[in-house]
Amino acid sequence: MPAAADAVGVWDGEGLLAGSWTWSPAGPELAMHSRQVAFSPRKDVMSSSNLAVRSMHDLGLAAWFGGSLMGATGLNGATSQAVDPRERLSLSSIGWKLWTPWQIGAIGVHAIGGVGLFAGNRHRLMVQEQARTNSAVKTVLTVAAAGVTAYSGMLGRTVEQHQEEGALGATEPGVAGSDSLSSAQRQLKLLQWAVPVLTGALIILGAQQGEQQRSSGASVDARTVDPVTADD
Questions:
Q1: What is the pLDDT of residue 48?
Q2: At 125, which helix (H) or strand (E)?
Q3: Is 228 helix (H, G, I), strand (E, B) or coil?
Q4: Closest by CA position to 142, among listed 41, 226, 53, 57
């Protein structure tokens, strides 16, 4: 007969995984002799909700990252090839203006998805320090990226207002440009890369968060395998 038994319960965010382990008299191996799993009655609904908000979070972020990177490399790079210096600024302004509503939509979708993920994983965040740290860093970077995006938009409007002055490129001031235009372009030359860097970091942190969830799930699965008994 087993000498002792320890009851163990593990909460995985969806239900309580419970079981008890005893030392087998056949050896020092720890054997689990029973398993009870109490899942939340709303598990399927929660899974569907998590899929929806995760999709919003990832798709919004992907559009935000991809659009800003394409603008910095493709749009600004292409308009600098225009022959007329004034056309370089006007074409760039038109392109960014067309992208702005989509960018705002992408940021909004990403934000809604992020809030939904936070709510859906609140139990895991309560017990996992790494998950809390990851979420805190993501929040800071998201606010920073949104701030840089908004400020870049303000600078873009300044460029649009001075487009008749012409320039060497979308972010390269010309010799005849005003101080206001030159200042806006010099700032945009740096900020056009800040948004892809910040949103790219958010993508990496999202991948890290996924790996943390996998590790957590694997740890739970290891402790809740099918019932086994010690060798006779």
A1: 64
A2: helix 122-127
A3: coil
A4: 57
